[in-house]
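Subject: mismatched residue count in predicted assembly?

I count 820 residues in my input, but I want to confirm that the predicted structure covers every chain. Input:
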Amino acid sequence: MPPSPCALCKVNRALILRPKDHSKLCKTCFISVFETEIHHTITTNALFHRGEKVAIGASGGKDSTVLASVLKTLNERYDYSLDLILLSIDEGIKGYRDDSLETVKRNAEQYGMHLTILGYDELYGWTMDQVVEQVGKKGNCTYCGVFRRQALDRGASRLGVKHVVTGHNADDVAETVLMNLLRGDLPRLSRTTSIVTSTPSASADPASDTNIKRSKPLKYAYEKEIVLYAHHKKLDYFSTECIYSPEAFRGSARALIKNLERVRPSAILDVVRSGEDMAKLVPGSDEGCGGACSKGVSAAEEEEGEGGCGSAQGRSTGGEMASVEAQLRQNEAAVDGHLETEITTKTINGSGKQQEACAANGKKAKKGIVPKKSSKQVMGQCKRCGYLSSQEICKACVLLEGLNKARPRNHIEVGYEVQDVSLNSVRDELDATSIRRD
Amino acid sequence: MPGKHLSHASDEPCRRCKHNLSVLVVRSEPLCHDCFARYVHTKCIKRLESFRVHFGAEQPPRILVPLSFGVSSLTLLHILNRHLQTQKSKTGRTGFAISAVYIQDPGQDLPAEHWLEKARQQYPDHQYASLPLHEVFRLVPDDASLQALVPQLEHQGNASPQQRFAHLINSLSSATARADVLTTLRTRLIVEHAQRIGCESILWGDSTTRLAQRTLAETAKGRGFSLPWHISDGASPFGLHFHYPLRDVLKKELVSYTHMSEPGLAALVHETTPGVAQASMSSKNTTIDDLMKQYFESVEENFPSIVANVVRTTSKLEIRPGAAADPRCSLCSMPVPGGRFGIHAWGGDQQDGQDFTSSGRNNLCHGCTRSIPKPVVGCSGS
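Triage response: the counts match. Full output below for your records.
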């Protein structure tokens, strides 16, 4: 078979089979069409305004590295006149984050962008390695996710930036759509499909770190094309997954998305479109509450993290599906309860018959049987840290409280900020204990 | 294991009657034969509130039950038949009258008349009919839009419905597209038949598992916009009502039911698409529907409540007000919000301009656009 020419320029030899639609392109045309599509996403959604200062949430991974590279290119080519900076969060995971942060530092030089690194230890007094040591490998993704949402907002606010862009791609969004269908979480499905999630500020203070706009310019870009782009542009990125495991629901949804892509390449984009359309059908979705009225966490906090971690919902890892199953079964038993057993579960509050009809038809989200619900909540500020929260104390502070209780030595610790370079925190812990006894 | 039957549970008494020995475990409850049958009946019949006996009514409303001769649709017919007998013995009247229809897929060798006759012997009080799927080109009244989907046929005005049908199916480029278009056409033919014989409602045999599969499959095909109509009870865009009385029963529970029920039911079951779960996933012939079927059959095994929750959650999606006035898709007939036909009318496709693939003749929704080959030459599609 003779080498086929590029479907676009018809001149060069086609070397790339485009993952998204299987068109055959040459390298130059692929790079240009990839960039043009991101430009299209940015302009049709009016993501930026001229002169805006934008922080790129940079992890050193492929998505955020490509995002930084493409934004720099487009900013120059189309004269967006954006002030682009890099913002990295150091979760404090040895063998993962410290290596990837080196990548971010090189990216900052390569792209001539200012870089700020903000550590969990600096913000919360805990690195993720210490959290894992404390709570174990199960369930630590919850901590990481909750901490990171706030960390990006706090970092942005510290830098005087009102807009953070993240590297979420089409695969991530599609995965999130399926995952939330499987978990039965319509409010979250509705929020996570939108390209911009901004948290309305609860305080009048313009410097508050709660009204930071988030957007995902790579929302329609295929993961495979991001990898191809990084490869052909010879971008410098770090390609190790987080060493702590992802949640079961996301893993399940991710496997489905990969299989779907194999059967029909357009399926990823089709799921994204379905998700956007379904968001409009979610009861109460357009009642002006934006993303802020559910679960007591800000829209930003609700967003799903890159690379499989960061769900605020992820109580545990391996057993997540099993525990949701158990919870649902309990609810079902309670609903069926009016038939022959005593009603014991507190989710039941009406007469049996009504509950039954409601559970079956699912007409009213408020009365729902499933625990996660789109109930309206009043947003306020956390009494401890001032972060947007529907509870008195925000999620991060609640988690911190639990952690700190188990570490009473914390307040007398000296030189704790260098904790992340110490090699063995078990030994530190022992040392600290013995010092205190002295 | 939920739903696994016999041996496992036999030393435990039934959780409900506390009397007989249990024969299987249903959602962590050991049940005896009778209580399990009652469990399935109750789940189905409580969905039939609108078909109670109305003493004022002169004639009971006629409903259509589409039969595939699979476990689910036959179980539905069986339970409905039983329900009618109960109504009759209690009140001397019935709340509804049943018509059943079997749609013959092309190239299928199931002798329709033979099987319908067997069903008639088993459940003699109802009307039965069978239609070949290509009849959709003859029966659907505004068929111009359907026919225009296959451009080559425009000048063959005298082609038979069979020929047109074969043309259309042969023009589809993937197994997913073929399965999708066949399902869509089947639904349209069933609806058309229901209207012609004066049915007010169609009672589908879909189980919980099947509805969950549908939910994710339609999502994956870009039909999120029409999802409420695919899985909710109530008015359909076709003008009659859709009901899914088995929506609270899992597929594996229906399988157990047919095994344990009277032998006449099991003898009728003729699964026309067996063993999808065994099909190789690398096969080019795998469809999105197969993928979801396989997925939920495995989830159902250990996480039945998650399957049920997908369906319950999705039925909370609300139909847009004013949807009835929206322009319809030429193929699936669903109202498309704001007439945004095709795939390019959507920002996510990242192409400016209007949809050139579905020219003025056809207005296809996102999902149907993916299945129907583009008239423009040169694009391989998916």
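Strands of chain B lie at 24-26, 29-31, 62-67, 97-104, 127-132, 201-203, 234-235, 241-243. Marking this ticket as 'not a bug'.
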